């Protein structure tokens, strides 16, 4: 892809390793037995999506968890359960970003929320760098009040970053999100969590 100038990365499932089953199990332990109706691991549903879209504040989200669980859980406990899905960013992926940013403009586009993002920020601290050093711009669903796979979030990214879709590659672990981006003419790469991102991506773009 000689014409490629921009790469947009998803966060969870692509850069950041997740353990969705652990999180659902933790929710069930505190009494939220319907969690599997809303938690998919890619595009959440129900009040989880409302939180990722910024339609619920963090205090409102915590209260919704208490209502669904039927228990007076502390803020600390609700946050612990919700954040239990977050693992680490493998070092080789941070090295990959450093390599790619020499040739491409890198962007982050994530369906995320205030609690998760605050946990994720320190995970980008590497070699004296911070998250803003890896990306030209970071686009977060809860700040934008938009979420993948809605077409409008991709349109917003293209417009605000002044990107041409044919010069842009979008990487996500959700086929639904990839299809949405592709409908706008954006090049897409569907990543399967657990695969070697570096090998697959470099083969794809060469």
CATH class of the largest domain: Alpha Beta
Task: Quote the CATH topology of the largest domain.
Answer: Rossmann fold
Low-confidence stretches: none
Number of helices: 12
Count of the domains: 2
Largest sheet: 5 strands, parallel
Q: How much of the sequence is in beta strands?
A: 5-15%
Strand order, largest beta sheet: 3-2-1-4-5
**Could you say which overall geometry the principal axes of the C-alpha atoms support?**
globular
Radius of gyration: 17 Å
Query: If you average the pLDDT, what whole number results?
Result: 95
Number of strands: 5
State the distance separating the first and last CA atoms. Answer: 6 Å
Which class of secondary structure composition applies to the elements?
alpha/beta
CATH superfamily (homologous) name of the largest domain: HAD superfamily/HAD-like
How do the helices and strands follow one another from N- to C-terminus?
A: EHHHHHHEHHEHHEHEH
What can you tell me about this protein's structure?
- By secondary structure, the chain is an alpha/beta fold.
- It folds into 2 domains: 6-17 and 88-205, Rossmann fold; 20-83, DNA polymerase, domain 1 (Orthogonal Bundle).
- It has helices at residues 20-29, 35-38, 46-52, 58-69, 75-83, 91-100, 114-120, 131-134, 141-144, 151-161, 175-182, 197-205, and strands at residues 6-9, 105-110, 137-140, 168-172, 187-190.
- A 5-stranded parallel sheet has the order 3-2-1-4-5.
- The longest helix has 12 residues, at 58-69.
- The N and C termini lie close together (6 Å).
């Amino acid at each position: 892809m000689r014409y490629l100038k921009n790469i947009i990365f998803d966060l969870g499932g692509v850069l950041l390793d997740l353990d969705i089953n652990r999180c659902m199990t933790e929710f069930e332990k505190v009494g939220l037995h319907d969690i599997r109706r809303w938690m998919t691991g890619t595009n959440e549903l129900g009040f989880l999506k409302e939180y990722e879209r910024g339609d619920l504040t963090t205090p409102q989200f915590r209260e919704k968890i208490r209502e669904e669980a039927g228990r007076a859980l502390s803020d600390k406990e609700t946050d612990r359960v919700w954040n239990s899905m977050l693992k680490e960013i493998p070092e080789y992926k941070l090295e990959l970003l450093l390599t790619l940013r020499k040739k491409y403009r890198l962007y982050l586009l994530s369906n995320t929320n205030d609690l998760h993002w605050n946990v994720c920020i320190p995970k980008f601290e590497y070699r004296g760098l911070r998250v803003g050093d890896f990306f030209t711009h970071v686009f977060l669903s809860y700040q934008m009040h938009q979420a993948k796979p809605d077409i409008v979030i991709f349109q917003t990214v293209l417009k605000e970053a002044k990107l041409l879709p044919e010069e842009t590659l979008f990487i996500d672990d959700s086929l639904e999100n990839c299809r949405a981006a592709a409908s706008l003419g954006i090049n897409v790469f569907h990543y399967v969590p657990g695969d070697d991102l570096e090998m697959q991506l470099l083969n794809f773009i060469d």
